[in-house]
Design brief:
It is found in: Cytoplasm. Its cofactor is Mg(2+); Mn(2+). The protein is of the alpha/beta class and 405 residues long. The protein has 15 helices and 14 strands. The chain has helices at 69-82, 114-122, 131-144, 164-167, 173-178, 188-201, 255-263, 268-277, 280-285, 290-298, 302-326, 336-341, 343-350, 362-366, 391-404; strands spanning 9-15, 20-26, 31-39, 47-51, 60-62, 92-99, 110-111, 150-154, 210-216, 220-226, 229-233, 331-335, 373-374, 383-386. The structure holds adenosine monophosphate.
């Protein structure tokens, strides 16, 4: 599809409601040419931080009001152009967009057309916070380079292989179908990348291994991956279900919502905000950063200790559940901010699971590093691994594969 064989660069855009993260990668060798972030879009205190890695330049910052996503992308384009990496470059093959919700329909990276955009728009009711920002990002990029392929890479796509019995909620089918209520799962780009990298670490093909992936960032999700295909994941209709997260509750009895509505006089929006923004670790102890929680535990703080224990207990339950779903497990892989850095979380999540073949070697677990690595002792039947995620590289890889096919 690419006219120019020298066009090997992909710009990856991740548009949030008030932020725009980007990376420019060269798929000829996977090199990162530039990375950056625009935050607080629409506020007086907007900030653009741009690092031109290709030229070895240092980070540049602009702190002035950036009114909207169009202005943000224009500012990013100007920064890239200043480094000779402008969006008008013939070396740019595609722009890859992270799109959070692709529903049941988008199972693969997809070339953006008007019809595709309309479909992403129809999914706004199930992703009200994310899809509108993603659509804005795509439209803005299209306006800047109308001739360039824009590729949507969906957070939900990897999970579309879930069998129907894992994707269905046990509620009235007609109601569920009329309102798109089913389990979609998120962080799919990360789960796909990490499950493949875990197979690589074991020296196997992804089709030969069963992996439990634990993506533990500020948002957190687990997935059960059989032979390279997702068979279950912990997030559902929205990213609220499943593990305890930085600010989200994860699993709760749905009746908590009716109880708060009827007896605490809380509105739907208030309960939505409670469960998404004031729950999880921050709700339990006032902090959502695992570093701060560990520091408080070291000082003897009981609330921080309880928050940690609730977090780990849920994590352990999901490891057990996905062990049962898979029947045989070759590896458990920890990834994202907490998974890659918080050795005490990894140790506690696996503690006591020796009968399942799971153990962590204290020394290996304490070591730090950027590379994928095993932290289980040699005797353990199941490998436990730390596998750094790289969602931008995965989006660029998928987008490039599509346009260069
Ligand atoms: P992410 O969403 O993947 O960027 O992860 C962000 C979270 O990772 C933060 O909120 C922290 O809780 C956690 N994190 C980052 N670095 C560390 C670290 N060195 N130790 C423990 N937790 C960390």
């Amino acid at each position: 599809m690419t006219a120019n064989a020298n066009a090997t660069r992909v710009l990856v855009l991740n548009s949030g409601s008030s932020s725009l993260k980007y990376q420019l990668l060269d798929m000829a060798d996977g090199a990162r040419l530039a990375v950056g972030l625009v935050e607080r879009i629409g506020e007086d205190t907007s900030r653009l931080a741009h690092t031109p890695l290709a030229t070895g330049g240092t980070k540049r910052e602009i702190t002035e009001r950036i009114a909207d996503h169009t202005a943000a992308l224009n500012a990013v384009a100007a920064e890239l152009a200043a480094d000779g990496l402008g969006l008008d470059s013939p070396e740019l093959a595609a722009i890859g967009h992270r799109v959070v919700h692709g529903g049941s329909e988008f199972t693969e990276p997809t070339l953006v057309t008007d019809e595709v955009l309309a479909h992403i728009e129809r999914l706004v009711p199930v992703a009200p916070l994310h899809n509108p920002a993603n659509i804005t990002g795509i439209r803005t990029a299209q306006a800047l380079r109308p001739d360039l392929p824009q590729v949507a890479v969906f957070d939900t796509a990897f999970h579309t292989t879930m069998p129907e019995h894992a994707a269905r909620y046990a509620i009235d089918t007609a109601t569920a179908d009329a309102h798109m209520v089913r389990r979609y799962g998120f962080h799919g780009t990360s789960h796909a990348y990490v499950s493949r990298e875990t197979a690589k670490l074991l020296g196997k093909d992804p089709s030969e291994v069963n992996v439990i992936v634990l993506h533990l960032g500020n948002g957190a999700s687990a997935s059960a991956v059989r032979g390279g295909r997702c068979v279950d994941t912990s997030m559902g209709l929205t990213p609220l279900e499943g593990l305890v997260m930085g600010t989200r509750s994860g699993d709760i009895d749905p009746a908590v919502i009716f109880h708060l509505s009827r007896n605490a006089g809380m509105s739907t929006d208030e309960i939505d905000s409670l469960l998404n923004k004031k729950s999880g670790l921050i709700g339990l102890c006032g902090d959502n950063d695992m570093r701060e929680i560990r520091r408080r535990i070291d000082e003897g703080d009981e609330r921080a200790k309880l928050a940690f224990d609730v977090y780990v207990h849920r994590l352990k339950k999901y490891i057990g559940a996905y062990y049962a779903v898979l029947g045989k497990v070759d590896a458990v892989a920890f990834t994202a901010g907490v998974g890659e850095n918080a050795a005490p979380v990894r140790e506690a999540a696996v503690a006591g699971l020796e009968e399942l073949g799971l153990a962590v070697d204290a020394e290996l677990n304490a070591q730090r590093g950027d590379a994928a690595r095993l932290i289980s002792p040699e005797y353990a039947r199941v490998a436990v691994a730390v596998v750094p995620t790289d969602e931008e590289l995965e989006i660029a890889t998928q987008a490039y594969a599509l346009v260069s096919a």
